[in-house]
Specification:
Shape: rod-shaped
Number of strands: 16
Radius of gyration: 30 Å
Number of helices: 0
Helix content: under 10%
Low-confidence stretches: none
Order of helices and strands: EEEEEEEEEEEEEEEE
Distance between the termini: 112 Å
């Protein structure tokens, strides 16, 4: 009969010292610090293998010559699930894992277009409906507007990238300037859109 000898489990462990578990960052890379404990239980030299979301990390492998391992890893937008495996010169190996979320900064401002009324419109009523569309690469948070540089009013949006808006404004007799702009979730603001509306006396 054949006798199979089972290798004893490694006498060392691998710990992720930095970054903390479930770490979030706005940077495209992260610096990892791993620790082999106890240090004298690992037979050097060794090898570290890294995977990210099941694919080779960047870099995918590093030579190990000490118990503290520091190295950078590139991130992709969203969740990055890292797995680390260290193997020593005797072929003993252990693994550890870490999750890092990369939130891509939103620096792109939204846009806004007033479609109605047309610039230079003549009206005879005190209340005028204003409508148009706002767009953003992530989502529109709100529409803001003012009449004749008065107090700023806010219309809540639904965080959708394309948001059709409509709101009434009160206009005085004569020329009135309506300004409107959009704001996204990152507080980026669009360029103000302006229309002039002239209210005439009702006949």
């Amino acid at each position: 009969s054949t006798l199979y000898l089972q290798e004893p489990p490694p006498e060392f462990t691998l710990q992720v010292m930095n970054p903390p578990q479930d770490f979030s960052t706005g940077q495209p890379s992260v610096e990892f610090t791993l620790s082999i404990q106890p240090p004298d239980a690992f037979l050097y030299p060794g090898m570290l293998t890294v995977t990210r979301n099941g694919q080779p990390g960047s870099p995918p492998q590093l030579a190990i010559d000490g118990p503290m391992i520091q190295f950078p890893q590139q991130l992709q937008p969203g969740s990055n699930n890292f797995s680390f495996t260290v193997r020593d010169a005797s072929n003993a190996q252990v693994s550890a894992s870490s999750t890092v979320t990369y939130s891509v900064p939103d620096n792109e401002p939204p846009t806004l277009d007033i479609l109605n009324p047309a610039n230079g419109s003549l009206v005879s009523t005190s209340s005028v409906p204003v409508s148009g569309t706002a767009t953003d690469n992530v989502g529109i948070a709100s529409i803001k507007y003012s009449v004749n540089d008065g107090s700023t009013q806010t219309v809540s949006a639904n965080q959708a990238p394309d948001f059709p808006f409509a709101f009434p404004v009160n206009v005085a007799l004569g020329s009135n300037t309506v300004k409107a702009w959009s704001v996204d979730a990152a507080d980026n603001q669009s360029v103000q859109a302006t229309v002039t509306i002239t209210r005439t006396q009702q006949q």
